[in-house]
Amino acid sequence: MAGILEVATAEFASKGLSGARIDEIAAATRTSKRMIYYYFGSKEGLYIAVLEDAYRRMRSIEAELHLEDLAPEDDLAALDSDSALRRRLKHYAAPDLLLVDEVGYLSYSNRHADLLFELISRRYEHKRTVITTNRAFKEWHEVFPNAACVVSLIDRLVHRCEIVAIEGESYRLKEAKTRSEQKAAARAAVPRKGKKA
User: Fold this and answer.
1) DSSP 104-149
2) pLDDT band of 31, cuts 50, 70, 90
3) Are residues 154 and 81 in the same domain?
4) Which SS3 state, helix, strand or coil, does residue 72 take?
5) Residue span of the structural domain in which 20 resides
6) Cβ pair 108, 77 in contact under 8 A
7) Scanning 5, 26, 120, 163, which has its CA 20 to 30 A from the CA of 109?
8) Arithmetic mean of pLDDT over the chain
9) Which among 17, 45, 65 is the end of a domain?
10) pLDDT at 67
11) Which of 176, 172, 165, 155 has the alpha carbon at shortest distance from 133?
12) Are residues 31 and 85 in the same domain?
């Protein structure tokens, strides 16, 4: 299954959801379309599995890097000189795929909105960007309360994009429940002192 996800990731990254072809993924993995549909249900199901796998890998790497100590938006906003800011924007604009996670979790200043707009503008139509958010675009005025660039930012994000609404239980909550159930099962399996097994 990992081979299918790896090939599907490359296919979706280069052609997007609408351009990717299941028969090409099947041929590259020496499997059949039927098997892919059996495991993933649909092309959209495979796409969501690819996103979940990418997110899982990203979270694993994040945990190793201790990124909670860093705040890219504050990193950018704190830069005073134009040349330092240009270098940092170039750094964030460079990756072939940039993931901006949880837009909407906090409210941001005009400066943060302007920097995000500048970053998205630099990447616009040249590089792929994934944005995760729990807010509808119409609510982004609450995320960037006084920013004049919000409409233009959203315009660039949605032009030629694919919006994937993922309904259901939180991935983190799901993992926490699984860990909790495993711990409870392990505790139940250990005999207690004074009681016969």
Assistant:
1) TSS---HHHHHHHHHHHHHHTTTSEEEEEESS-GGGHHHHSTT-TT
2) very high
3) yes
4) helix
5) 1-65
6) no
7) 163
8) 83
9) 65
10) 45
11) 165
12) no
